[in-house]
């Protein structure tokens, strides 16, 4: 076997580097050869091919140390695309790995093994032939190393060391070379697999990190969303839900053409850019036009399909603009319909695209669904077949969470599809005869609760200016209650709104201590505003807190 | 994200501050502080507070207006509040009986032309 024929010219000139003495193997020693067979088996254990890189390295190094009775054993791997080795795993030399020691190929002990691709034995370690200070610090006296070669390519170096001077025999060298030959392919396979896994998981966590962790809790709209990664590659799908001014909610869904880290990275940018425009531009068509400008300017090869919709939660107006994306699905009582508006081209597809805004009315209780094509596309069938399957699957389920689950169950059967899938469903909940809300005593909770009350009043036929007045009066009562409750550190504030004929009565309850308002202060002014905006204000101070009941005709000016 | 936004514009004769969104006890103090920081570094003869396009405005907002007017008067400056009677803020000022204490205009005075209509107008 050539690997144990260590030639005299090892290709190195360092002092103390000598070729191995060529011992005759103990051919007649049955016990020795039996133990040797056992040693070889332990190094080529088929189970080793089933473990990950870390476990493989750890096991192999441990076994080599036992079989050769050495103090140290280390594996250095060649860095892809660099003329360097990096310490990857070690026993007795853990520091070398912890410090991620790098050895230039061609220099020092391991570097010369890598350059010459031949075993090297150093009987007495000296500064001249060992560049790695850790090897000296540990006190290694003798070293033996062999190259790791897979299909003619050098992938690294395996070496063993002794803390006492030792003559490594040709037998030892042969065993080490055999160990190297046995483990190298496994290391290479595990390393490639590891890297593939790392790339995949980086891209996947990148993508996951870019999607909202959880959807915002919005007054007066129920939203559910799902993202399903593709079976073997990261994709460029995304969704987003943002709360805008004045009871409006922006909902976006998009699909960057292509796969992999590049698609995910472009997706991240499109999501952020769309979000930024959404806060300043109320018109979805303008938002898409600006998004297209951004892509044309900064990512000339980028291409994405997008729907951006703005829902007015108060009156149900859904304004949407479409860039080459599959149609909105509207699910009503026992019905489901695709709403195919005339959309513009995909973002980044053509210069100067035109996007127009379309409006749809989303009645209370109805659910709208936006999705990416991964949900409906199947190899070997037209998109219309997939869309019809989606439409039929949606009939009868109005709850956004359950609808998302049902669509994934029925259309992709819970398995990962070849394309990634994003899905958002939202609805304005049905009105109840009585509105009851409980909020925590924080000023930041005031705005959403006013929003919910406003929607409830408008839906019950309140005229806009009357509703404005009621919201102002109730807003003062709520702000007072939050202040009381906050001061006393006693949790929640309750709001109840009921309609009796034409009269709405709003009850606000807190459990804090009542403080008589002084005139010409915020709260004094607040009380004045309450009295001025309402027909009747009733304040009851109880031992446990304060109850304010406000009454107002919904129709009288 | 609700809350309010602030815009500052500087025509030759003063500063126009435009507030949009919700003004309530959650943000009134922060808004007042931000407005004062910008105004008192500019030594404006006149400040115009345009609240004609807010979505909500209650006693916390009214109080902001009063405090701002008082501070400006101390510097010898004038505050003009833009809030038509039919606007949200106009109604709040009316209900709080604030009309006598501050100058309320229906529109940004001509000498300081209004900024071009924003996307939310």
UniProtKB/TrEMBL annotation, chain A:
Write out the entry's keywords from A to Z: Hydrolase
Q: Which residues form the PPM-type phosphatase domain?
A: 222-428
Spell out the coiled coil positions from the record: none
Q: Which domain of life is it from?
A: Bacteria
One Pfam match: GAF
Name by which UniProt lists this protein: SpoIIE family protein phosphatase
Which species is the source of this protein?
Paraconexibacter antarcticus
TrEMBL record, chain B:
InterPro entries documented for this protein: STAS_dom, STAS_dom_sf
In terms of Pfam families, this protein maps to: STAS
Q: What is the lineage of its organism?
A: Bacteria, Bacillati, Actinomycetota, Thermoleophilia, Solirubrobacterales
Descriptive protein name = STAS domain-containing protein
SUPFAM superfamilies according to UniProt: SpoIIaa-like
Stored PROSITE patterns: STAS (PS50801)
Q: Which organism is it from?
A: Paraconexibacter antarcticus
Occurrences of domain STAS (ranges) = 4-88
């Amino acid at each position: 076997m050539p690997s144990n024929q260590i030639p005299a010219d090892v290709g190195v000139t360092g002092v103390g580097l000598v070729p191995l003495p060529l011992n005759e193997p103990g051919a007649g020693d049955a016990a020795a050869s039996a133990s040797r067979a056992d040693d070889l088996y332990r190094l080529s254990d088929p189970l080793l091919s089933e473990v990950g890189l870390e476990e493989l390295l750890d096991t192999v190094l441990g076994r080599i140390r036992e079989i050769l009775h050495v103090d140290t054993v280390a594996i250095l791997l060649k860095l892809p695309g660099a003329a360097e080795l990096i310490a990857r795993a070690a026993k007795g030399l853990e520091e070398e790995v912890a410090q991620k020691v790098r050895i230039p190929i061609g220099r020092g002990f391991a570097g010369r093994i890598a350059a010459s691709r031949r075993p090297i034995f150093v009987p007495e370690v000296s500064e001249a032939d060992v560049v790695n200070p850790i090897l000296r610090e540990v006190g290694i006296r003798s070293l033996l190393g062999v190259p790791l070669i897979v299909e003619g390519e050098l992938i690294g170096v395996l070496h063993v060391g002794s803390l006492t001077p030792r003559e490594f025999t040709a037998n030892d060298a042969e065993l080490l070379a055999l160990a190297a030959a046995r483990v190298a392919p496994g290391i290479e396979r595990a390393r490639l697999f590891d890297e593939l896994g790392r790339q995949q998981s980086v891209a996947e966590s990148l993508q996951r990190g870019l999607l909202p962790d959880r959807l915002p809790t919005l007054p007066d709209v129920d939203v559910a969303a799902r993202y399903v990664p593709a079976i073997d590659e990261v994709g460029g799908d995304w969704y987003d839900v943002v709360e805008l001014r004045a009871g409006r909610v922006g909902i976006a869904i998009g699909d960057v053409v292509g796969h992999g880290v590049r698609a995910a990275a472009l997706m991240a940018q499109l999501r952020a850019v769309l979000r930024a425009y959404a806060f300043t531009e109320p018109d979805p068509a303008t938002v898409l036009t600006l998004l297209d400008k951004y892509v044309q300017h900064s990512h000339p090869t980028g291409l994405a399909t997008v729907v951006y919709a703005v829902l007015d939660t108060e009156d149900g107006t859904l304004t949407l603009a479409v860039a080459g994306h599959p149609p909105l699905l509207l699910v009503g009582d026992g019905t489901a319909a695709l709403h195919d508006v005339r959309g513009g081209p995909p973002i980044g597809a053509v210069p100067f695209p035109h996007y127009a805004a379309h409006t749809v009315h989303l009645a209370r209780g109805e659910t709208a669904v936006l999705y990416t094509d991964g949900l409906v596309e199947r190899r070997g069938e037209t998109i219309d077949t997939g869309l019809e399957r989606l439409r039929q699957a949606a009939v009868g389920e109005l709850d956004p969470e359950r609808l998302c689950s049902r669509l994934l169950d029925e259309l992709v059967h819970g398995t990962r599809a070849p394309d990634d899938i994003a899905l958002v469903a939202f609805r304005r909940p049905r009105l109840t005869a009585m509105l009851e809300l409980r909020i925590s005593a924080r000023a930041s909770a005031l705005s959403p609760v006013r929003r919910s009350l406003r929607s409830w009043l408008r839906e019950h036929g309140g005229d806009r200016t009357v509703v404005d007045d009621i919201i102002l009066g109730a807003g003062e009562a709520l702000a007072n209650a939050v202040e009381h409750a906050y001061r006393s550190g006693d949790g929640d504030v309750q709001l109840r709104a009921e309609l009796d004929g034409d009269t709405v009565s709003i009850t606000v309850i807190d459990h804090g201590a009542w403080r008589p308002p002084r005139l010409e202060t915020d709260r004094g002014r607040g009380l004045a505003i309450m009295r001025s905006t309402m027909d009747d204000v009733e304040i009851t101070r109880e031992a446990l807190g304060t109850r304010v009941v406000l009454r107002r005709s919904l129709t009288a000016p | 994200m609700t809350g309010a936004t602030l815009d500052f514009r500087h025509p030759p004769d003063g500063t126009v501050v435009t507030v949009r969104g919700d003004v309530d006890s959650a943000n009134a103090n922060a808004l007042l502080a931000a407005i004062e920081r910008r105004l008192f570094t500019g030594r404006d003869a006149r400040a115009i507070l345009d609240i004609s396009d807010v979505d909500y405005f209650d006693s916390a907002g009214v109080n902001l207006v009063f405090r701002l007017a008082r501070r400006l008067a101390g510097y010898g400056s004038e505050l003009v509040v833009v809030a038509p009677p039919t606007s949200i803020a106009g109604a709040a000022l009316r209900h709080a009986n604030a009309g006598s204490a501050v100058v309320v205009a229906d529109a940004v005075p001509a000498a300081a032309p209004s900024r071009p209509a924003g996307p939310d107008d």
